[in-house]
Model the fold of this input.
Amino acid sequence: MKLLINSEYEIAVCGGGFAGISVALAAARCGKKVILFEKQYILGGLGTSGLITIYLPLCDGYGHQVSFGIAEELLKLSITYGAEALYPDNWLDNKGPRTENDNRYMVEYNAQLFAILVEKLLIDNGVDILYGSYVVDAKTEDKKITSLYVENKSGRTEYRINAVVDATGDCDIAEFAGAPTETFKQGNVLAAWYFYTDENGYKMRQLGASDIPEEERKGNERKPLIPRRFTGLDGKEISEMVYLSHQTTLQDWLKRRAQNENTVISTLATIPQIRMTRKLVGEYELSHTEVHTFFEDSIGMVANWRKRGPVYEVPFRTLYCRDIKNLIVAGRSTSVNETLWDVMRVIPCCAVTGEAAGTAAAMTDDFSSLNVKELQEVLQKNGVVLHEKDLQTSLCQD
Ligand SMILES: Cc1cc2nc3c(=O)[nH]c(=O)nc-3n(C[C@H](O)[C@H](O)[C@H](O)COP(=O)(O)OP(=O)(O)OC[C@H]3O[C@@H](n4cnc5c(N)ncnc54)[C@H](O)[C@@H]3O)c2cc1C
Done:
């Protein structure tokens, strides 16, 4: 096979889920020449192709918004033409109180509309999107990735680039480049989220809830759909998981159809619904115990979707390692401990790390020597609040 060569781009974003979208947008807005490789033919990753359309909270559950910038911009974009459910009018229209008893700042959105709108947003901002393009390998020299190998309808192309963002969700690029990574020890439960229609319209069916982290269980075990667990890192295993997910969907629908003959399966996920696979072993590993902790190098904050209260500042050091200097990771595979992983993997957190990674990639090709203060200044200029001490303390109670 002839190898094509491309040297047009400064920044390569691998993966076009919520993390990759945020990366590409942030980097392009800094004036860089950005290419985004996505193996599907739609942006959004698990948040569209995976049918996971619940944008979890940007707030702490006690009336304080903690995630801002692109995380908020994408939430608003996702409901440009209305929300599917959970419209947070107390936040967006300032119509009600924001206490621990009120709706958190979250929405359920339409996957297809979001994908169409965000694709235009990226293109309008100058990002080149390459669909159907699988990043299959990386070449490294002197602790830097010098080229990515990408396969698509054109064949195989070597992209020579300065900075690489791994937003594959699985740390694929980190693994290709030989950066240190860790896999999810517990393994993923089977999930089968699908959409069906009946005379009342279409609805999401969520089969296979996430595990409850060990220290929160207290006898509150959730029974998985099946006992088997999945790593999400083995081609054969993923295919078996997808098959089991389809069979679970079929059995569930047959039960529903027995009660209502108008029930029809309308949409299946087109990427595997796997939560946690592989993560970076970064310069710093953020722990679930570091709640309300000040970090000098914070790039933004995230809330805990599982419960109201906890807020985490996210250290820049959780996004890179020294072993591969021009590689940065965003999304559901940043450097956090096993328990916090379930908090950090969700959509708003992917947007927070994505915006920081994209902004950083526009500033350097050696992340460990980046002047973090300069990165923070750009993030703040773009609306990100870095530290909990900088949050406005007044609650909206009207
Ligand atoms: C069953 C389930 C329920 C969930 N529920 C919620 C929820 O209610 N709310 C919430 O906020 N989050 C939820 N999540 C988590 C959330 O959906 C994801 O963690 C988040 O969307 C991940 O975003 P990401 O961009 O990091 O990764 P992904 O969405 O996985 O995006 C990665 C993208 O990279 C592409 N890609 C991967 N490898 C390559 C490669 N080598 N070359 C090119 N492209 C590549 C993929 O096609 C994909 O588009 C759930 C997840 C699951 C599985």
Remarks:
- Residues 192-267 form one domain.
- Residues 36 and 85 are 30 Å apart (CA to CA).
